[in-house]
Amino acid sequence: MARAAERTRWTVCCIALSALLAGCSDSSAPSQKAIVPTPVDPATAGAIVVDVTFEGRAPAPKLLDMRSAAQCAAAHSEPVYDETVLAPDGHLANAVVWIKDGLPSWVFAPPTQPITVDQRGCMYRPRVAAAMVGQSVQFVNSDPEPHNVHGHPQVVQAWNFIISRQGASRTLSFDKPEIAVPMGCDIHPWMRGYVAVLPNPFFAVTPSTGAVTLSQVPPGQYVIAVWHEKLGTKEQSITLPPSGKATLQVSFADNG
């Protein structure tokens, strides 16, 4: 136990130094500019309902080994399993749904309410989060031990910072879209999560039911995209009539 604690302290020190040398800061945040959004007429806006399903039997989840961090293991009364593919009763959770095409001339202001990614029980909650470009993403540490949040993007600026105290937080925002940015904790290697950054406010992450509703969408022809961390991305076209409702089903399968 003493050696494990010493290794953890050494890892924390190395991560803190790496983050400092990398100049990690909230530099992913866009500069403050006045945004004049295109108004959406509530009288003609409608809703798009997307049902995301999984074909066949979901792969058996792997047991997570937290024995290297006693406090992490003690936070759970039951075994903890990998959450890469969650598909209870054929409904796929943790899939990002958004309007990919169909809004070329629209301007949207980011929501003022931040989204929160908690580190609780040495797991990301939620595992998959989604925010609009310019929206604040708050990373919170609810655990009594330190975590670092290390993002590995392809488009937005990378980040790596440590949150050493329980109840502490750090906030970022991003100036361009990316679906989706993987992140992890270098102290606890089983911790994996994603932040999807979307170009418009019409997005959602599927819950255990697999179904989401995109509300207050102006009428038009759209391409709906659905992304999953393991199963990839699928797209479907759909037409939303004025004051109407459109539904579609997107199905995934595990092809290995």
Q: Can you walk me through this structure?
A:
The structure is a single chain. This protein is mostly beta strands and 256 residues long. It has a single domain (2-26, 41-253), classed as Sandwich (Immunoglobulin-like). It has helices at residues 2-21, 70-74; strands at residues 46-55, 96-101, 115-120, 123-125, 128-132, 137-141, 147-151, 159-163, 169-172, 178-184, 192-198, 203-205, 211-217, 220-228, 232-240, 245-253. β10 and β11 form a beta hairpin. The radius of gyration is 20 Å and the shape is globular. Mean pLDDT is 90; it is low at 19-30.
Brief digest:
The chain contains two helices and 16 strands. It is mainly β and 256 residues long.
